[in-house]
Amino acid sequence: MAATKFLIWLVQSIFLNLLMVGDELDEATRERMQQRAEQLSQEMARLLQELEQRSQEQRRQEPRAQEQSGFSWGALLFAALQQWQFWAIAGVLVLLLGLCWWSGSGGKGAVSQPASSSDEESSSSDREQVEVEEEDDDDDADDLGRFFEEHIQWPVQNLATECQVVKDLVGDLLRVLQVLLSNSFFPVLQPAIGVGSAFEGWSPDEKGIIYRLLVPLRPPRGHTFHLELGTAGEMPARNFCIHVELVCTCTREQLAENTLCFLHHPKEDLRRNQDPSLLRTLCTGSYLDAEKTARCFQQLVKAAWVVLPESSNHRLRVLPSSRSCKFQVTKDGKRSLLIEMIFGVQQGNSGIFLSSQTTEAVSTPSTMWSESYAVAEVKFFRHMARHAPRDSFHLKCLQLCARILVGTSFSTYTLKTVVMHLLTTLPLSGWRRRDFLLRLQDIMRYLRCCLEEKRLDHFFFGNERVPEEIVLPPAFQAAEPLNLFQSLAQDPATYAEALREFDELQDRLTRLLIYGC
User: Fold this and answer.
1) Which residues of the chain register pLDDT less than 70?
2) Parallel, antiparallel, or unpaired: how do β-strands 193-195 and 210-218 relate?
3) Gap between the Cα atoms of 198 and 103, Å rounded
4) Coil vs helix vs strand at 59
5) Rounded to two decimals, what is the model's pTM?
6) pLDDT score of 156
7) Which of 11, 99, 364, 483 gets the highest tally of CB atoms within 10 A of its CB?
8) Is residue 368 within a helix (H) or strand (E), and if so which, with residue range?
9) Structure confidence at residue 51 (pLDDT)
10) 345-367: string of b/e by CB count within 10 Å (b at 16+)?
11) DSSP class of residue 347?
């Protein structure tokens, strides 16, 4: 990939110098240059493919791979240098694209003509407004990110609209369920909170978007929840158990009609006159069971759906899921939305929840609930959206980098953690569209440094840079940073594979910037 890496450097350097040009091109010249640029683009792509094929053939023909381990990369570079047509076309193409793009901006970077004497009586407010507009225009003239925004094939998405549709639909479902369960002793459902990449404002792909919502659960009357660490002495622990206990309601019986105290009324009266307690329905032993909870609400969602007006022109299909309620809603047999309701119990008044969904690859006991930071992460990105510049590209950077992770061991959560660290380290003014390439470089460089150190700190543990509006449990603030790359430090083979995959990520990103897809 030496040729593609060199070409990206060439694009950046020529474009940055090209913006200093002050002569405008006429319309006919610009059209001819655009046509020529398209022809050269096709020729450059053909030559690049030919170079890569020749390099692969040379690698297959090497008789002694160990003695020539450093030759394959050099062979590609040497072959590229021999193809003078490639570099000539590449240079001309970049110049033409840059000139076409700059001239198409309508000369926004040009300095305005001095005002005539008749205009000198204009108010100072008008002059200030013009100055502000000129500053914005100058920013546009130096905006290399605009070229890549138009060049890259971004997923066609309308996340804000569809997220609102999903929230409204799930809100209607929950209101029906609250009525159905009002006289029972099932957990009390709270308003759903949108979580995950879609509700954070980005998604790596336009297909297969899962709209996830966390539904907080509160104990029903006569019950209380106690959160217990899954592993004694480990702080912070990743898994918890939710211990369910009965509490006396004798003093409140008069306020709640037909409610009997589970602790002090005869069992026969309770069995005849009252629904069973939560301990007898959704618990295993005295602990809330995530799998029982999910199965129960899957059936309840089916029952509640027929009551909704949407059921007349939408079709609901509940999908298999052991620890959540996942379903697909289809309108008129065309547009489909994939929705997943996850159940959680809040830790105090913080943005950290215990979630029914687990990310563990191994089998997790049904009474184990994983610690989830999804709500805090959504709040973080909303905070950034309020404080970042209007044309901030931090979500575009995240979206673009997530596209190159497919088929590797790197998760989108790893990448999101890197971006969150950088968002609180670099000035938000540096995430504008014109800084797109620089921020991509920072993301890859930060990830590389973390790999070399075999350490990537979890964003919410022991991090003083977390925005104050995100409430965390006191233990988080005093905790030692949690290393997300702990497995790399423990397994040399996994570490070597991660380094190899990182090089592949760099190549993928380079190709994505060149070809746009």
Assistant:
1) 1-145, 147-157, 206, 231-237, 252-258, 359-362, 517
2) antiparallel
3) 36
4) helix
5) 0.74
6) 57
7) 11
8) strand 368-372
9) 52
10) bbbeebbbbbbbbbeeeeebebb
11) -
Residues in Cβ contact with 362 at an 8 Å cutoff, skipping those fewer than 6 apart: none
**Residue 320 confidence (pLDDT):** 93
List Cα–Cα distances, 97 to 41, 44, 92, 100, 502, in angstroms.
10, 13, 9, 5, 30
Structure tokens, 354: 């215990």
Question: Which residues, other chains included, contact 250 with Cβ-Cβ below 8 Å and sequence gap of 6+?
Answer: 261, 264
Q: What is the pLDDT of residue 6?
A: 44
Radius of gyration of the chain (CA): 29
Q: How buried is 437 (Cβ within 10 angstroms: 0-12 exposed, 13-18 middle, 19+ buried)?
A: buried
| Amino acid code (one letter) for 305 | W
Q: Distance (Å, rounded) from C-alpha 216 to C-alpha 211?
A: 16
Which residues, including other chains, have CB under 8 Å from residue 257's CB and lie 6 or more apart? none
Question: Using omega within 30 degrees of 0 as the cis cutoff, is the peptide bond preceding 309 cis?
Answer: no
pLDDT at 145: 66
Q: Is 41 helix (H, G, I), strand (E, B) or coil?
A: helix
**What are phi and psi for residue 207, nearest 5 degrees?**
-105, 145
Contact between 287 and 241 under an 8 Å Cβ cutoff? The reply is yes
Q: Are 308 and 182 in contact (CB under 8 A)?
A: no
The DSSP secondary structure of 213-268, one letter per residue, reads: EEEEEEPPTTEEEEEEESSTT-SS-SEEEEEEEE---GGGTTTSTT---TTTS-HH
pLDDT tens-digit map of 217-254: 999 999 999 999 876 444 445 889 999 999 988 876 54
DSSP character for 373?
Answer: -
Distance of CA 127 to the CA centre of its chain: 42
User: Pick from 391, 449, 439: which is nearest to 419 by CA?
Assistant: 439
Q: Which of 190, 169, 215, 212 is nearest to 308 (CA)?
A: 169
> CA end-to-end span of the chain, whole Å?
16
